[in-house]
Design goal:
This protein is an all-beta fold and 113 residues long. It is 0% helix and 35% strand.
Length: 113
């Protein structure tokens, strides 16, 4: 297993050390290795694909088609989701309700509307 931490911006695990910093290969975010252990005490900051901070109750738009696990359903790009709820546990940051049911989404596939 890799000892590098996941990206604090997009939460994906495709990161690598580069000098005194860690670099995310997916979003290009860089952060210092000395401060790699984030202090998430419930004050977690969730950012969308553009880096905008998301809050409970915001409306967001999907930036790509997403397949739903265990189903033939596809959430289409451009779908607007109202009244999101941010969650701190697990690998997904956003809970939401749409016509197809309740979904858990990663913030890196959303942009604030």
């Amino acid at each position: 297993m890799s000892a590098t931490p996941p990206c604090p911006q997009c939460t994906l695990e495709n990161t690598y050390p580069d000098g005194a910093n860690y670099v995310c290969a997916d979003c290009g975010f860089e952060w210092p290795q000395a401060g790699a252990a984030p202090a998430d005490d419930g004050g977690r900051i969730v950012r969308d694909a553009n880096g905008t901070v998301l809050n409970d109750g915001d409306a967001v738009v999907l930036i790509k088609d997403l397949k739903v696990k265990g189903s033939s359903t596809v959430l289409k790009q451009g779908t607007k989701v109202k009244s999101i709820r941010l969650v701190g546990d697990g690998d997904h940051e956003v809970d939401c309700r749409m016509d197809g049911g309740s979904f858990m989404l990663k913030a890196c596939f959303l942009k604030k509307a």
